[in-house]
Design brief:
alpha+beta, 5 helices
Length: 168
Amino acid sequence: MKFNLLNRKIHSWVSIIVAVPIIVIIASGLLLQVKKQVAWIQPAEVKGSGKSPEISLQKILESAKTVPEAKIETWDDVNRLDVRPSKGMVKVRAENDWEIQIDLSNGEVLQSAYRRSDIIESIHDGSFFHDYVKLWLFLPAGICLLALWLTGIYMFFQPRWARWRRSK
């Protein structure tokens, strides 16, 4: 079988096989591209009143407890803290994906909202479904996408290269 024919067959069949995982990766990737511009995906950052941390970790926890949706009672309910001194605030990320932004000067809750970017990211890499899906479906789909890109580039340039060689 000629290489060009084999290349086209590989390109067409692999495209069909990886179509579903690739559309999930593309759609979630597009959402992640605009996460800072779309508050529904990731809450916009609100500036605090100061520029340096003046409250204790205990005060941060107490302030976070005041947001009922976050369901924070102890530090075990907190996924992470993201301190932004230049913006005068700290983001408290709860285990249930709620984000609370707290002023670093006085401990006031600036904003609380549900954060979807982490869920979208886990969909994007396949771990949302299962680790096996991530490793045995999304990873091979990514490798196949690379193969599709390579075969597509070859199919694009090969006729042009042949025409160029004939003209010389």
